[in-house]
Design goal:
246 residues, mainly alpha, 2 strands
Length: 246
Amino acid sequence: MDSYYFIELILVLYRSVCLLFYTDRYKIVKHLNFKIRTETVMAGGRQRTFDKQIALEHAMRVFWQKGYAGTSLMDLIEEMGINKPSMYSAFGNKEQLFISAMHNYIENYANKHTKYLYEDELHLNERLKKYLLSIITSQCGQDGPTGCFVSVCITESCSEDMPLEAMEVIATIKNLGEELLVDFFSKAQKTKDLSTHHNAKRLGQYFISILHGTAAMARAGKTKKDLEAIVETAMKVLGTVDKPNK
């Protein structure tokens, strides 16, 4: 009986140590407020349990930093903290994992900036500027590697190293930002918050081009202050707001 309780004590201590290790290892994504989703798979004849969302976060950051072609399976499994059988069971192959990473970025990173465009109590210029500066802050490394994951994907999709299915997903995603801004400017013209002498489509394309440029500059080491100055200059294309929102 004494031996039994001694073994139980050892197991409790072991679990406590594992919990402490887990908390420290994944504190980088603790603030993201994701719903915890646990994936249990059979790997090499034994059961492995891990947080699927955290593993996806780590994979996304590797792709973000190195691109699809520059990321090896070893890079992925080392950063995700799982083995190959577990990765294949939970996410599929490298291409499918990459696609999941892109969707994760859009859902949990890119979409958060759009709220600033719909703060109706603010003037159009103020809303757009807050939207652009929020993206700039992210590009400077607040949420992960510098730059923009979508910009990295778009650039790489021009090569022959990208699988067809991944290229098709990128082709859809790359238009989302432009469509969002075109819709934003079109609605502003209908409410007379933006002069009709502007072309809504061209404005959308203009500001998306600015953001892809700042993403590249952020990866090249430009500071947040440098990029904020670019936004200030870009905003001058709008002039002043014709009528404040009410």
